[in-house]
Amino acid sequence: MAETDSRKTIVLTGASRGIGHATVKRFSREGWRVITCSRQAFAEDCPWPAGPEDHIKVDLADQEDVGIAVSEIRHRLEAHGGQLNALVNNAGISPKLKTGSRMDSIETPMHVWRDVFQVNFFAPIMLARGLFKELAAAKGSIVNVTSIAGTRVHPFAGTAYATSKAALGSLTREMAHDFGPHGIRVNAIAPGEIDTAILSPGTDKIVETIPLRRLGATSEVADIIYFLCSGQSSYVTGSEIHINGGQHV
Ligand SMILES: NC(=O)c1ccc[n+]([C@@H]2O[C@H](COP(=O)([O-])OP(=O)(O)OC[C@H]3O[C@@H](n4cnc5c(N)ncnc54)[C@H](OP(=O)(O)O)[C@@H]3O)[C@@H](O)[C@H]2O)c1
């Protein structure tokens, strides 16, 4: 039976491309209302039927803008009972040198380091705290998107990126501890080499050594995000799931 009046709602950052885009499609297919966040305004030619009322234009690198976005999201949720079933912190940046090489811990300019931490680490906790009341009201679920680079030096991912993802993994554990008593589950997913625009040339060489011998598809990541936001994972919190074809072994 259709349940259009009791649709579950997810707020998803970095929805315009890659893993985020596949996640929008996955949750929409399951009948969720998806509130998307990215720097771009809603594209008028986008075939997605939900329309601009479910899109928030926000630059997560700008703290003030994140605060404004939180108020706007809360306002939009109010009209639907003030409940939020899931927050997925997916947006991330991984700056490279002009040559395409990784930015190491000796050369990375401090302003780059700060921007990376603002987008990859501070924005997720700002959103989670800002939407805490709505998440608690729905006994919702938070998924933070980390990376394999958070636990080992990666040939292309830079130091600022790697350390921001390690910090986000640690934050996931802290949040699971603190948010759990309020009924909110907090987990992370750590993708390996997934076929999106964030990948660097040369990734095909890494893939040769991965046990499953192929890139991951964005839909395979979206499936795990969906699982972590669904009732099927109701006793899972504080975990970080590797989605990497065995790359971490
Ligand atoms: N692909 C992989 O192999 C891989 C591996 C490990 C981890 N990850 C992680 O998975 C997540 C998604 O990766 P992806 O490969 O799908 O990335 P992507 O294709 O580069 O997309 C990144 C998304 O983040 C948004 N974004 C970037 N900066 C933003 C900002 N300042 N404010 C708001 N939105 C911003 C972008 O939207 P706009 O440009 O429209 O603003 C875009 O939707 C990231 O956290 C990434 O670190 C990916």
UniProtKB/TrEMBL annotation:
Membrane-spanning ranges: none
CDD domains listed in its UniProt record: SDR_c
MF annotations from Gene Ontology: oxidoreductase activity, acting on the CH-OH group of donors, NAD or NADP as acceptor
Domain of life assignment: Bacteria
InterPro entries in the record: NAD(P)-bd_dom_sf (IPR036291), Sc_DH/Rdtase_CS (IPR020904), SDR_fam (IPR002347)
Assigned protein family: Belongs to the short-chain dehydrogenases/reductases (SDR) family.
Protein's name according to its UniProt entry: Oxidoreductase
Organism: Mesorhizobium hawassense
